[in-house]
Amino acid sequence: MVSSSSIEYKKRMIKTWNEIAPRYHKRWANKSIGPFQSTQKLVKMAKLRSGYFVLDLACGTGAVTREILGKIGKTGHVIGVDTSKTALQIARKSIKAENADFAIFDAENFEFNQKFDVITCQYALFFFPNATKALHNIKKSLRKGGTLVIATHGAGNTVPYFSNILDSVQKFIPDYIPSGAPDLDRFGNKAGLKKAIAKAGFSQIMIQEYKFWYSPGTFSKYLSDYLKYLAKPLKEKIDKLNPKQKAELKQAIKQKTIPYTKNNVIKFPWKVLILSAKN
User: Fold this and answer.
1) CA atoms of 100 and 110, how far apart (whole Å)
2) Where exactly are the structural domains of the chain?
């Protein structure tokens, strides 16, 4: 039975991604910077071949989909699926290939007539409220011996770009993370990620751990860009703080960036896990 909180969470996520997809594409997904230095490494772990039939699950604006096309040749085929209509519109516009299709599907409830050789999923597994159901669905959709490749962000302060702000904001806004939201850190370490994949019935699990680097510039630029690209509901919560609270919040965040700052420029480490497994 699907809980009402999960349904509401999914609705919020779809609305959020429809809002932020253009900004997300411009800032991150269209560039091989920060966490998206993982895209080529993920596709390399998939060991794609010419003619493969591939599903790019939660494809967003198509960062991984584009790389897949370069590996499977004209005889291969890739389908990118996502729940965000806006993200898929961007993907369709930027990726024009006869052997690439895009469709709106929920990771927990998709079904295809043909099984896939490879399924990829970059930076999305932790968003699925019922990740176990999604993983069983993935397994059912892979051919026997097929490959699953997943990328996740590291947990907590292994990605200080996020944690510096989230940890500080939640002291001022306890409900900053809405009710019904899954634990976004639950697959941010090797043990947790491997356990979930093994429980879903996959084998030959391998996890590569990477530390990428990303510089958002000065503290002022880091904070202003973060807030600029924030979804509207979260922006509204921060805007409701009084001037004193806003000043205290800013100082709390700045204090956390000091270990990563040199000559007034921030350089953050960014932990990423990339997993491959066999069906």
Assistant:
1) 18
2) 4-158+179-214+270-278
| Residues 150-179, mean pLDDT to the nearest whole number | 90
pLDDT score recorded for residue 232: 82
The yes-or-no verdict on residue 2 having pLDDT over 70 is no
**Sign of CA pseudo-dihedral 62, 68, 70, 73:** negative
Give the percent of the chain with pLDDT over 90.
Answer: 73
3-class DSSP state of 53: strand
| 1 pLDDT higher than 60 | no
Are 93 and 116 contacting, i.e. CB atoms less than 8 angstroms apart? no
What is the tens place of the pLDDT at every residue in 19-61? 888 888 887 777 778 888 999 999 999 999 999 999 999 999 9
More confident residue, 182 or 67: 67
The tokens for 248 are 């205290």
Please state whether 245 falls in left (phi above 0), alpha (psi between -120 and 50) or beta: alpha
Q: Other C-beta atoms within 10 Å of 150: how many?
A: 27
CB atoms within 10 A of CB 195: 14
Degrees, nearest 5: CA angle 124-26-8 = 40
* Tokens 């956390």, residue located: 256
How do 265-278 and 116-122 pair as beta strands? Answer: unpaired
d(CA 276, CA 200): 13
Say if CB 108 and CB 6 are below 8 A apart.
Answer: no
CB 207 within 8 A of CB 152: no
For domain 4-158+179-214+270-278, give the CATH number. Answer: 3.40.50.150
Q: Is the pTM of this model over 0.70?
A: yes
Q: Which two tokens stand for residue 265?
A: 């420029």
- CA–CA distance, 207 with 211 (Å, rounded to integer): 13
